[in-house]
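Supplementary Methods. Inverse-folding protocol.

Structures were first reduced to a discrete structure-token string of length 149. This string, shown here, constituted the complete conditioning input.
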């Protein structure tokens, strides 16, 4: 016993699955799965309503043609939809974290601080002397930007 009774149902199910995977798993980072999935959905509908035959060559040609058509028509709107990003600052346990400097820090002169199993480089825009209490303003990969408290 097959899961789907005909080719049109299988095409529509796989097409929907591809679009859902693109959105949920990949976060809509690529449009290819969505475009191909949409083409498979439409091809499945066309087969279901008898517009095109359910032969292998017809299905392949239909999916290829519709994928190209959807790419031409939808690329720009989908790209614009993807371009809108929310630039909220991410908050973590490092925001406002305070500690005592082990070395002098200045613009271009880095110190270091061991926190949570990581040796962080410590930098500041203004000079801060060793032994001063500092607060983390911002962090990047492996670097803490601090200011004196």
């Amino acid at each position: 016993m097959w899961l789907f009774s005909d080719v049109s149902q299988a095409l529509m199910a796989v097409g929907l699955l591809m679009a859902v995977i693109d959105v949920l798993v990949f976060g809509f980072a690529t449009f290819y799965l969505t475009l191909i999935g949409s083409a498979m959905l439409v091809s499945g509908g066309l087969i279901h309503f008898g517009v095109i035959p359910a032969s292998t060559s017809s299905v392949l040609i239909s999916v290829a043609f519709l994928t190209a058509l959807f790419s031409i028509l939808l690329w720009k709107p989908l790209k614009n939809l993807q371009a809108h990003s929310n630039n909220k600052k991410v908050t973590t346990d490092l925001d406002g974290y305070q500690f005592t400097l082990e070395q002098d820090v200045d613009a271009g002169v880095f110190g270091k601080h061991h926190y949570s199993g990581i040796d962080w480089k410590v930098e500041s825009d203004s000079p801060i002397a060793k032994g001063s209490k500092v607060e983390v303003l911002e962090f990047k990969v492996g670097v803490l930007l601090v200011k004196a408290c």
